[in-house]
Request: fold
Amino acid sequence: MNLPIYQHPTMTVLVDDSPSFLHSLRFQLGPSFPSIGFSDTTAATAWLRQHGAAPAALAGLLSPSVDTYTFAPQPYNIALHVEQVCGIRRHAQRFLTPSVLVVDYAMPGMDGIQFCEAVRDLPCRKILLTGVADERVAIEAFNRGLIDRYVRKSDAHALDRLEEELTHLQEGFFLAQSEALRMLLSLHDFSFVNDPAICGLVRELGARHKIVEHYLFKTPPGFLMYDRDARPWLLAVETEQSMNAHFEIALDGGAPASLLEALGQRRVVPNFSDGDGMYSPVRHKEWHRYTAPAQSCHGRELYYWAMFPLDPEFLDGPVESFSNFLRRHPGHA
Reply:
């Protein structure tokens, strides 16, 4: 069980030659799966080409930088700027990113398989809607890698299955965007992104706080999370090693005995994110304001975590909320 290092609501693109079917399906999917429908494949292709390039642009923010040193024993260094992951939240158009394409097979001019082949270079996942007689064609297309799933329109539970596949494929879309970075992250302070226990914790907290988007956060290590109204939360994740580092630096910095005791006994998780992430006698005199009760999570190692509600101003102001996006784009829900 893996966790995307970032994820936010996206657009489901529906393609069917029946406008009435599109209207009905979009209504049934509702705001949980914002969608845009096309009864014309040419218009659908144009929209996908315009908005499907957005993931590539955002993915550029996630690309590690490579420094080459001709005379050094190590010929190159690779660096990942984790702050760039959080930078994605600043893109107001992120919710228009097409993550999953749902296309009917039986369409005049260009059938669903031909359409999926025409846009196979785009990173969005693809679901084919078929009739019973088209199942053999769908299986062949799946084996060729043109589609990721197929759903029979005649299935009594077609909508439930479609929603289930949309949820699964949307997450798969984001997993693919960040997969290349997992090895780098696991070598540094972010190995928790590859731990199923933390994955489960993020899902549990996401459901509890109605989180709709999250982004890997650098200092302290963890995840920046937003609900539908862009209320921010910070999930801070610390290890024994990092907690020891907090204690040592606080000790060297002349921290109050009460803070040292709380850190040493693992009773609090710090959020000293207004500097280098460590205690400062200048900035953190009222240290209680920068800590929260520690909770533990047992995975591949022992983690200490806490959820901090944040002031948007702490993050240099608010971001576009998913709720506001739905109000501004009522035709997309």
Summary: The chain has two domains: 6-182, 189-315. Residues 85 and 107 are 40 Å apart (CA to CA).
